[in-house]
Amino acid sequence: MAHSRGHSSHSHGHDHDHDHQHDHDQGVNASADSEAAHQATVVATFDSYRQASLSANQRRRADYYALPKRHRDLLGDYKELLREVDEKLLVNAAFVQQMIEQNPFPPPQDAALDAPAPTDADHDRLRSTLRQCVRDWSEAGKHERDTTYEPILAALEEHFAGVSDEDRSKLIASAYILNHAPEPNSIPIYPYLHSLSNIRSKQDLLAPCYIPDVNPNEIAGGPADFSFAAGDFLEVYGDGPGSWDACVTCFFIDTARNIVEYLEIIHGLLKPGGLWINCGPTLWHFENDRDASSIELPLEDVKALARKIGFEISDEREIQTCYTTNQKSLLQHQYTAAFWTARKRQ
Ligand SMILES: C[S@@+](CC[C@H](N)C(=O)[O-])C[C@H]1O[C@@H](n2cnc3c(N)ncnc32)[C@H](O)[C@@H]1O
C-alpha cells in the first residue's frame, strides 16, 4: 500500500513561522521547490518504468544462465516464460508512457535537474497504481468495488463530487482514464507481472486485465462537476471550512500519522449535521517508519475518539474485502474493513 513522501515537508513549512514574514516566504519557496522536485521524480519514475521492470526480469535471466546446463535443460521453457514476461512488461511500459505524456502535473523545466532519482518506494508506488487501475477500472476489480464502494454509495443519499489524494501517480492514472476516456476494455495491462511468487500457472501470470471496463464518459450520466484536489489532505482541508455535506474515507484514515488531527479535519470540513462515511482497516501506514511519528489506536478507540470530537456514529459494520489483490494468486490478503456512517453533531 502506498503513501506519499517528499512533499509532506510542505506541512512542516506551513505549520511554523507564521509570525515571521521572511521565514514564512522561505517556507513557501522551499515548499514550492520540494513540490517541483516531487513532480519531477514522479515523471522520472514513469520514464524509468520500462528499464526498471525489464532489468528486474533480466536478473532472473542472468540467474538462469548461471545454472549448470543440466539444470537449465530440466527447467524446460523457463527462458521462454521470461521472454514473454519481457514482452508484457513492454505493454505495461507503453501504457505508463501514454499516461505520463498526458501528465496534468508537469514539473517546471528546471526542476528535472534537481529531482531526486526514483527510489524503490517510487517504483513501488507506480506498480501499485497499475494494480489500482484494476481495482477501479476493470472487471477483475469488480469484487473489491462491490464490497467497498457499493455500501458507501448506498449510504450516500446523493452523489457528491470532489476527491483528494496526494499521490501523483494515482492522480496521473485517474486523469488519463477520466479525461481521455479510452474505449471500454481497450487497454491491456499486466499489473501482477512484477513478482513471480505465488503464481499457479504461466497462463495466470500472463493473463491481461483490460481497462476501463466502462466508458468513463457514461458513468456520470451526463456532464459532471467532478474535481480532484491534488495534495495533502491536511493542507487541502485543514482550514476547516465547514461547508461540505459529506466526506467519504475509503481505506484512508490509517494513512494518518496523527489520527486525532485527521478526525478533527474531517469534522471541521463538514457542515453541522454533515455525513462522514468510513470504510477501511487500521493498517497504520507509518507504524514501521522510523522517520515519522505515528499514533496507532485500536479500532474501538478510533470510534471513541470520533465521538469525543463530535460525531454520532451509526450503521457500524464489518466488511470482508480485499485491496488490489491478484485474485489468481496463491496468496490472498483479506481485510475485515470497518464501516460506519457518522453525523457531525449540530
Ligand atoms: C490505501 S489508498 C486508498 C485509495 C482509495 N480510497 C481506494 O479505496 O482505493 C490510500 C490513499 O490515500 C492517499 N493518501 C495518503 N495520505 C494522504 C494525505 N495525507 N492526503 C491525501 N491523500 C493521502 C494515498 O496516496 C493513497 O492513494
UniProtKB/TrEMBL annotation:
Keywords, in A-Z order? Methyltransferase, S-adenosyl-L-methionine, Transferase
EC assignment: 2.1.1.22
Looking up Gene3D superfamilies in the UniProt record yields: Vaccinia Virus protein VP39
Q: What is one process in the GO biological process aspect for this record?
A: methylation
Q: Name one GO molecular function term.
A: carnosine N-methyltransferase activity
- Similarity field: Belongs to the carnosine N-methyltransferase family.
Tell me the protein's name: carnosine N-methyltransferase
This protein's species is Rhodotorula taiwanensis
